[in-house]
Amino acid sequence: MTGGHTEPGGFTLVELVVAIAVVVILVSLAVPTYQGYLLRVHRTEAIAVLLAIGSCQERVFATTGRFDTRSCLPPAPEHYEIRMDPPDATDALSFTAWADPIGAQEGDSCGSLGLDQTGLRQVTGDSAEVGSCWAARF
Q: Which terminus of the chain faces fewer neighbouring Cβ atoms within 10 Å, N or C?
């Protein structure tokens, strides 16, 4: 046997710090991407509710010749409040259904989403574009 020395197993402090730094960088890139994904998913849920309201209001109009903003209100998605303009009208000639963000969804640049009786889609966010916020659902 020769008189060499053996290295102890395990990580050095430098290797551990480098590994932690890599993990921190990956997390710092992944978290904003995931948060943006959640905003888009919640927005899609609100859009589905607005489109359902619009379809229902069209059926009401086809039957009565007027819109009834008290009816056709499905349960609101978790991250939005749904409101109708004009509120509580039984004989309106027009309507706009709005989905207003609440909680963490208020950070969405699209702001409130709107849909009127003509199918016009609206957003209230300062830098928002209707096409990107409504994900080209035209």
A: N
E strand intervals along the chain: 80-85, 96-101, 113-116, 121-123
Cα–Cα distance, 6 to 95 (Å, whole number): 80
Task: Tell me the per-residue pLDDT of 2-32, one tens digit each, with 9 for 90 and over.
Answer: 555 566 677 788 888 888 888 888 877 877 7
Tally of CA atoms within 13 A in the half-sphere of 68 that contains its CB = 13
Would strands 113-116 and 96-101 be described as parallel, antiparallel, or unpaired?
antiparallel
Q: How far apart are CA 14 and CA 5, in angstroms?
A: 22
**Distance in angstroms (rounded) separating the CA atoms of residues 119 and 98:** 13
